[in-house]
Write a structure and sequence with these properties.
The complex is a heterotrimer. Helices cover 31% and strands 28% of the residues of chain A. Chain A is built from 7 helices and 10 strands. In chain A, a hairpin with a 2-residue loop joins β9 and β10. Chain B folds into 2 domains: 194 residues, no CATH class; 174 residues, no CATH class. The longest helix of chain B has 35 residues. Chain C is mainly α. Helix content of chain C is 48%, strand content 0%. Chain C contains 5 helices and no strands. Chain C starts with a helix and ends in a 20-residue tail after the last helix. The relative contact order of chain C is 0.08. The chains are: A alpha/beta, B alpha+beta, C mainly alpha. Chains in contact: A-B, B-C. Chains B and C meet through α1, α2, β1, β6 and α5 of B and α1, α2, α3 and α5 of C.
Chain lengths: 230, 385, 103
């Protein structure tokens, strides 16, 4: 399989050259292929979120490089990174990161504002993706009126609206009960069968032990300690 | 275009979310603009009023100056000035003030000699005989007489003199005649006990208007103790009467601008945690810094433009429809006889433009700069909640 | 897109309303001839706006000392007093210094 994401010798430091310098990642090298579904595991503070944000083009490594389909994204200026985030990635966050007092459909439409689509087209795509997640009935509701599970589904709908190749999910089950977690896994399975690449950071065993997950990368103190493919 | 409209759409929905905050912002902002705008409109309209009617003021007014003060001028000077080439006429004028200690009002007593034509803005007629007078609307309103009543004044010898009111000036002329009592010149001279050989000042009319300045110089040369005041100088006085350094402009403008700066500063420094979070989310899901900033730009523009237009509209209505009830007490000072006047709408678009520039641009800056500082950071922190 | 269009329509209407009010006021050619006649007939030199002191009632006629002498209570603190800048027109006296040699 062709390599989709290639990371080489990634290092990430925070507060560089200051007394409170933190080494978040040290010498990480890994490849992720098209259609793979990868779980990043490890205790909190091990660097999962940092690695996800580097792979998702949200921040740049202190040193090392990341290539996305042969494009060295770690060197690109911020403008292009934003465009790549918009077109290639869908993000699902631990805190959902929805705008709380905005209604569901507008939240889902957010990633399309910078695109060239017209407002009507944006509404159409948002409606379609909300229907897929059985959220069509609550389009006009404000996000803070929804339950945790519903909010998570809205967040996933938002991640999918631009039809991204790669889904990045950070602790997606942290605020869900086991029932909802199972439901989430089903959704992930569906997205995977669409042909999407999925990267999940999690410390929830029900996720990383599920048969859906093909590969598990374990981190500790900013370094890869284990990389197993089932 | 479509993209700008989409940005505007997002901006409006984001402004609506913080409805009460933004609404109060618009109210305060519009109020500031309305205050400043009212001052601009009022002073400009007064200026226009003065400069348009005072074009008929005497070409030259000659005063005598003694020990640095205005003094009565000898009527001998009339002959000296009349001899100068280019002079059409020289008229000695008698005028002065009369203080009423009961209502503490100052009246201006003015003498006329020979004018007999009908004045359009006078009800009744000008005084023709020694026992007659015409009064301004302000005097009529303050003391309550009408045409046909008598005005009784105490002269400088403490004797009372009675004048029959033969005319009252119409309200439209209030800005010119409000506190006037017009008498025959001889009567007034009597009343003030002013010697025949003296006058308050001399009025000089001239054939060629372009020679006013030259004649003023000549008169000053021939009669070094006089002070010639040209018509242009009078008009210029009113042109610069209400400039930006003058008291009311300064007091009102500075108070309003400081209040506005506090508001803007508060906004600039106080980008809230929620707003920061929102900017982070938008960046994380693929908005560029430029997209975030264009939303903030629109946000500032919507608020400041709406406020500016509402404010100027309010100022216009305040000054030209309601006659500036909010500013008149300031203008009035200690005047007892303050004219009620209806101003002719006049707007100085240059001033308006400066006002727009001085309020909208800094406000836009105050909205964009803090957002820019937030927007250029990596969106990574939103992942950490 | 309704909100955006509605806002643009609103602000445009408001702007046009304000502008046309101002333009109408500016274009209204007022007949000042009656006032000019009055000014000419009575020899008026100043606006009858502030009647509390000589130099505010007749700013173009007052001498340099007027602000300090006309009215015993006329300290330079009333609003109109501060509004009228000192404008001594028609005075031409100058101070000159003669520096004597060896001084």
């Amino acid at each position: 399989m062709a390599q989709l994401l290639v990371a080489e010798n990634l290092n990430k430091f925070y507060h560089r050259h200051q007394p409170d310098e933190v080494t978040a990642l040290r010498n990480i090298s890994m490849q992720i292929s098209h259609g793979e579904i990868v779980a990043l595991t490890g205790p909190s503070g091990s660097g999962k979120t940092t690695l996800l944000s580097l792979l998702g083009c949200m921040s740049r490594p202190t040193s090392g490089s990341i290539r996305l389909s042969d494009l060295t994204v770690s060197k690109l200026p911020e403008r292009f990174l934003a465009q790549i985030r918009r077109e290639k990635f869908g993000f699902v966050f631990q805190q959902y990161n929805l705008l709380r007092d905005v209604n569901v459909i507008e939240n889902v439409m957010l990633p399309l504002y910078p695109s060239s689509q017209s407002f009507a087209e944006m509404k159409k795509s948002a409606t379609a993706v909300l229907e897929r997640f059985e959220l069509a009935g609550m389009m006009g509701k404000k996000v803070n009126q929804l339950s945790g599970g519903e909010q998570q589904r809205v967040a996933i709908a938002r991640a999918l609206i631009a039809n991204p190749e790669i889904i990045i999910a950070d602790e997606p089950t942290a605020h869900l009960d086991s029932e909802l977690s199972r439901h989430l896994l089903q959704i992930l399975a569906e997205l995977h069968s669409d042909g999407r690449t999925i990267i999940i950071a999690t410390h929830d065993p029900s996720i990383y032990n599920s048969p859906l997950i093909q590969r598990r990368v374990n981190l500790r103190h900013g370094q890869i300690t284990e990389d197993t493919t089932k | 275009m479509v993209r700008q409209l989409k940005t505007l759409e997002y901006t409006l929905s984001s402004l609506m979310r913080r409805k009460s905050k933004n609404l109060s912002l618009v109210v305060v902002y519009a109020f500031t603009i309305a205050t400043l705008g009212s001052v601009l409109f009022l002073t400009h309209a007064l200026k226009v009023e003065a400069t348009s009617s005072l074009t008929e003021a005497p070409a030259l007014t000659i005063q005598k100056i003694s020990a640095g003060r205005h003094e009565l001028i000898p009527t001998d000077h009339v002959a000296t000035i009349e001899k100068l080439p280019g002079v059409k006429s020289v008229t000695p004028r008698v005028w002065g003030y009369y203080y009423d200690s009961l209502i503490k009002a100052n009246l201006t007593l003015s003498g006329i000699s020979s004018y007999r034509e009908k004045l359009e803005l006078l009800n009744g007629r000008l005084p023709l005989g020694p026992g007659e007078c015409a009064i301004g609307k302000g005097v009529a309103q303050a003391f309550g007489p009408a045409i046909g009543d008598n005005l009784v004044l105490e002269d400088s010898g403490k004797e009372t003199t009675t004048f029959k009111i033969t005319g009252v000036f119409q309200a439209e002329s209030n800005l010119l005649t409000n506190d006037l009592v017009v008498l025959q010149e001889a009567t007034l001279r009597d009343f003030f006990s002013m010697d025949q050989s003296l006058a308050t000042d001399l009025i000089v009319e001239i054939h060629n208007q372009r020679e006013i300045k030259v004649l003023a110089k000549k008169i000053k040369y021939l009669l070094p103790d006089t002070r010639p005041i040209t018509r242009d100088e009078i008009i210029h006085t009113y042109d610069s009467l209400f400039n930006w350094r003058s008291g009311m402009m300064l007091a009102v403008a500075i108070a309003a601008l400081i209040a506005f700066c506090i508001l803007a500063w508060d906004k600039a420094t106080g980008i809230s945690a929620t707003e920061k979070q929102e900017i982070g989310i938008l960046k994380a899901i693929g908005w560029e810094t430029a997209d975030v900033l264009s939303v903030k730009f629109w946000e500032g523009l919507v608020i400041s433009l709406t406020s500016f237009i509402l404010g100027t509209l309010a100022a216009w209505v305040h000054v030209f429809i309601f006659d500036a009830p909010g500013l008149i007490p300031l203008l009035k000072g200690w005047s007892v006889l303050f004219p009620k006047f209806q101003l002719t709408p006049a707007v100085d678009f240059y001033q308006l433009f400066v006002l727009a520039f001085l309020t909208i641009v800094p406000y836009l800056g105050c909205t964009i700069i803090p957002a820019w500082k937030t927007a250029v950071t990596d969106p990574e922190h939103v992942m950490r909640g | 897109m309704t909100r955006g269009v509605a806002y643009l329509a609103f602000i445009l209407t408001l702007a046009i309303l304000t502008a046309s009010l101002m333009a109408a006021g500016a274009a209204k050619s007022v007949d000042v001839s009656e006032k000019q006649q009055l000014v000419k007939a009575l020899g008026i030199t100043d606006l009858s706006l502030f009647s509390e002191a000589r130099y505010t009632r007749h700013p173009s006629q007052a001498d340099l000392f007027a602000p300090f002498q006309d009215f015993p209570g006329a300290l330079e603190h009333f609003p109109t007093g501060s509004m009228i800048p000192p404008n001594p027109i028609g005075f031409s006296s100058r101070i000159r210094i003669q520096q004597l040699p060896g001084n």
